[in-house]
Amino acid sequence: MPPIWHQKAYSINAMRDMARATLPNSIFDFADGGADDETTLRQNEASFNQYTLMPRPLNGAPTRDLSVELFGKRLNLPVIIGPTGLSGLFWPDGERETAKAAHAAGTAFCLSHGSTCTMEELATTDAAPRWMQVFIYKDRSFTQEFCDRAEAAGFDALVLTIDNQIPSKRERDLRNGFTIPPSFGLSGYISMAMKYKWLWRMRSTLGTMTFGNYVRPDQASDLSALAAQMTELLDPGMTWADVEWLRKIWKKPLLIKGILHPDDATKAIELGVDGIIVSNHGGRQLEGAISSINALPEVINEVDGQVPVLMDGGIRRGSDVVKALALGATACLVGRPQLWGVATAGQAGVERILDIYKREIDMAMGLCGASDISEITTDLIRHNTD
Ligand SMILES: Cc1cc2nc3c(=O)[nH]c(=O)nc-3n(C[C@H](O)[C@H](O)[C@H](O)COP(=O)(O)O)c2cc1C
Fold first, then answer.
1. How far is it, in rounded angstroms, from Cα 378 to Cα 370?
2. What is the domain range of residue 369?
3. What's the domain count of the chain?
4. What is the CATH number of the domain that holds 118?
5. Is ligand 1 within 6 A of the CB of residue 314?
6. What gap in Å lies between CA 26 and CA 104, rounded to an integer?
7. Other C-beta atoms within 10 Å of 27: how many?
């Protein structure tokens, strides 16, 4: 018998509403918001409407196989948990809860550099496939150390994020006075007190929460000290030479996340990268950047099947996933939706999110006449110019 809250959790956006009702406003907005005027954030979702599906119901698809193969591993569905920092702010041990949900659903999980647990702690869940997201730091030995630890902790792939080297301006956070760690000023206390269930749940972790991977025995380990240190560590001067270097030191699959320009996809492949993630960081970084789904076709065209192309940004429906796959993507990642899931019910909430995607993809495939993922082709999609 499914839990009662499942009735309200009938879609990804319904779970967004549930997360909003659960979380203090500033924490909900921290996840939900984007850079500047949030134009790119909105466009990520809105641009999916420029594409329409062209169903072929008589192709006959009485049952559907949603599984995809990626780097030699079979995933039960083409939806992967993307890296999101500070998931532990939404539910105690949020990252491990989410990884367990991904594992239960049979899909991959990517840990953020900025997780509240360490990569070694995440590995204790045995969640697989598990990927580790890293940055290029001014001190390259710091990046090297992340890679060595990820290797030792049995991560299956490395994801280099390239669109976050400069902190962006998230105006909702400025408006809300959102700070890391969350502020407990008078209005903060009122908002927190109103979300007493969240406060109660978080009572033993809020005070000690930190960016697990950055803690060093001889240094301050509180959240605010590490947040300042992390920003300082990032190198806005990184170049392709760093990708070349990373390729040399990381032997397993290497993906680049944050590619929007088709020529960058070509360059990445030339340097031996194994996968491309078309992404604008969910509209949280460069305001005015092209929406992910609109960037996808040119990248697919340029890559021409040499490596898998994944994408994220604005995927709120199973039909959005089908559209991305019809344009040539191998799978999609989701960011905010997993946070809405974990905020609602921990592992069970993320399982619910993945189940919603699975059911909606299955339904859309059936209605399109596609019985497996290979049958989701460009024949099924049109770009509307009007
Ligand atoms: C709260 C939050 C934290 C994020 N942290 C990271 C991160 O640490 N590393 C990273 O590469 N991307 C990060 N992202 C971006 C996501 O991986 C993903 O690109 C984006 O959320 C996709 O858009 P969507 O939220 O519309 O699914 C974060 C996104 C959110 C919402």
1. 12
2. 4-383
3. 1
4. 3.20.20.70
5. yes
6. 31
7. 24
